[in-house]
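haha ok so turns out i had the wrong file open the whole time. this is the CORRECT one, sorry everyone. sequence first:
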Amino acid sequence: MSIQTLPLAELPIAELSKVDWPIGQLLLATGVCLALLLAVSTLFLSASNRHYFPRRDSLRRRLGWISRLVYIGYLAIIAVLAISSFGSLVQYGRLSGYALQLHVAAAGGFVFLMAIIAALYLPMSSEAAFESSTLARPWWAVDWSAWALILSSLLAAGTMLLSMLPLLDTQELRDVAVLHRYAGLAVVVAAILHAYSLICRRLGWR
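then structure:
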C-alpha cells in the first residue's frame, strides 16, 4: 500500500500568504497588546504581592552566572534577529543587504543556544518533585512562557531550515517565509513574557 502525501500548496500552510497583514500594523497591534498585558499584570502582581521565596535546586541555579550569561546572550540574539528582520521589513518592505547578512549570521547562534536554553529553563520533573516537597510553589507563567519560547523557537528554526532544502517551489517558499515571520514574532513575544515572569519571580511577587 502506497502512502500519498499532499503537496505543500494543498496544506493549510498555503493559506498564510492570503492573511499576510501589513508588517507595520501587525507590529503596532502586537506591541500595544503586549504593553497593556504587562501593565495590567504588573498592577495585579504588585497589588497582590505575597513575597514568595522559592528555593529551586535547578540546573541553572547550580551553574550560576553561566546560565545567566547564556540567557542574556539568547535574548540579545533574539533582539538582533528581530531588529534586523522587522526593521528592514518596515523600512524597505523586504529583508536584504546588510540586514539579511546580520540576520543569517545571528541565526546560527540562535539555534545553538536554543538547545541550552531548553535544558536550563524548561520545567523538569525532578524540579517539580523538589518544589512540591518544600514551601516553594512554581508559578505557571514561568513554565508556560518557557514552553512558548522553546516551541516558537523550534518553529522559527524549522521553517528556516525547511526553506534551505531543495523541496519547495517559489510559492511554497513564500508561504514558509510568512510562517517564519509569524514564528519569529511569536519568539519575541514569548521571550518578553518569559523574561518578565522571571523578573517577577526574582522580585518575590510570585
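Residues 60 and 66 are 8 Å apart (CA to CA).
again sry for the mixup
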